[in-house]
Amino acid sequence: MNYSTLLIEAHEQGIFVLSINRPDKLNALNTQVMKDLDQAIAELSTDTKVKAIIITGAGDKAFVAGADIAELATLNESTGQKLAQSGQAVFNRIARCPKPVIAVVEGYALGGGCELAMACHIRIASSKAVFGLPEVSLGLIPGYGGTQRLTRLVGQGRAMEMILTGNPVKADQALQSGLVNKVVEAGTALQEAKMMLETILKRAPLALTAAIKAILASQESPEEGYNLEAEYFGDLCGTKDFKMGTTAFLAKEKPDFTGS
């Protein structure tokens, strides 16, 4: 997997780190980045060697500082809507990835960068991280799912404040509001994400995938979410991992899950 705007590195336990690699542009999202990101996530999602994904930005100044403003300035009504729909599709692919996806945020996560972080399943931020959706200052609104995901994460009132003012929030504020899961010392967020994934990947792989799907279903329809939860629960009762997990628990041993 070779991409002009991304770096992908394999780490222990099948953890793959995907870095947006435009540090000279503060990793701003442009057409090529979005194309590369879409293809990379599609490949990583289906590669059996990949157990979990970390998304971050190259350098220590920014996760992703937003979209490429030079590209945005060329949009009209038709091309703008198509761009938003395309961006939503890419970020939806990340959100629906059957494997755990963690955003590691060092520095700025603004505009499309904040939307990218929110598309990930979990967000770990450096104490120096800054989040914001400043699109109204450009005469726009967030277009890659930001109005929807921010509202679900922090509630309507806080989402209204962040989006209507366009003001950024620091890491501690993001943690307090529920926008991020954890804040750690600068330079340690990647290691913290790996440690969290080490714990997650000790669990049954089929159960992890089912849990991700069931949680996401709740966003579409609470009733459907309940139905899928029961369906997946039943399916998992027929797996070898379920038998292994319950047997090991009763024997006070550690389970050795196989993903079957």
Keywords:
260 residues; alpha/beta; 2-enoyl-CoA Hydratase, Chain A, domain 1; 2 domains; six-stranded mixed beta sheet; 11 helices; 10 strands
Radius of gyration: 19 Å
CATH topology-level fold name of the largest domain: 2-enoyl-CoA Hydratase, Chain A, domain 1
CATH superfamily of the largest domain: 2-enoyl-CoA Hydratase, Chain A, domain 1
Distance between the termini: 27 Å
Task: Enumerate the spans where pLDDT stays under 50 for 5 or more consecutive residues.
Answer: none
How many beta-strand runs?
A: 10
Find the structural class using helix and strand composition.
alpha/beta
Estimate the mean pLDDT confidence: 94
Strand order across the biggest sheet?
1-2-3-5-7-10
- The shape, in one word, is globular
Number of separate structural domains: 2
The helix fraction, in percent, is 40-55%
Main beta-sheet strand count, sense and barrel state? 6 strands, mixed
In quaternary terms, these chains amount to single chain
Q: What percentage of the residues does DSSP assign to strands (E)?
A: 15-25%
The string of secondary-structure elements, in order, is EEHEEHHEEHEEHHEHEHHHH
The CATH architecture of the largest domain can be given as Alpha-Beta Complex
**Number of contiguous helices:** 11
CATH class of the largest domain: Alpha Beta
